[in-house]
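Task card 7
Instruction: Convert sequence to structure tokens.
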Amino acid sequence: MSAVTPVGLRFDHVSHGYDIGGALLPVLEDVSLDIAPGEFVALLGPSGCGKSTLLRLAAGLELPRAGEALAGGVPITGPGPERILVFQEATLFPWRTVRRNVEAGPEARGELAAKQARVDEALRLVGLEAFGAAFPHQLSGGMAQRAAIARALVNDPRLLLLDEPLGKLDSLTRLNLQKDLIRLWQDRGFTALLVTHDVEEALLLADRVVLFSPRPARIIEELRVDRPHPRRRDDPVLIALRTRLLASLGVLEDV
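Output:
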């Protein structure tokens, strides 16, 4: 697979909420955020504050109640193959093999015959070339997420939206997939927006960490992580940034 042309993402004074029992539950409040083409940004904040909702707006699965979400300067009005969302759960079709799961996108667009080499390459990129005939129930959690990532990559996304895709994995598998995500991002060149509750993961992966308040989410801090990859957990700069973020989240005393 050749590198893609990444797309920038912009949220312009976005507010959103849900109708719960006839009353509006505010989730996002006046969020403005610019993500440059090819940038890797991580979103941090309390559970349930609205981070995943922001990803759904970027994916076009929902439209904001106020403000605007734009990809490449164009308003997002619905889903598109250039913007792919990878969920915390692998959400594979259990009745389809790994390969058939990866083929789902090209098949839906009537491009399956022309995309077989692309399917092969996506499986190779995530290390599942020997498991194409396996079914989801035969995979470990880490392998299932690799399959979900391959299903995303085969569509040549210009923006990859990651909703805690490593959150339910064991620590060793998680560490390995963190390395894989960085490798794929560097090789393919897509823009990445990651939701995570793991401060260390955000600092290891992202160019920039955006911190949200409790619901309704507002941006309360942004940190630039100006360190080369691969990053080390014992890097004094990362340790200092981790302490600062934990303090902002209320886990540590202010520093």
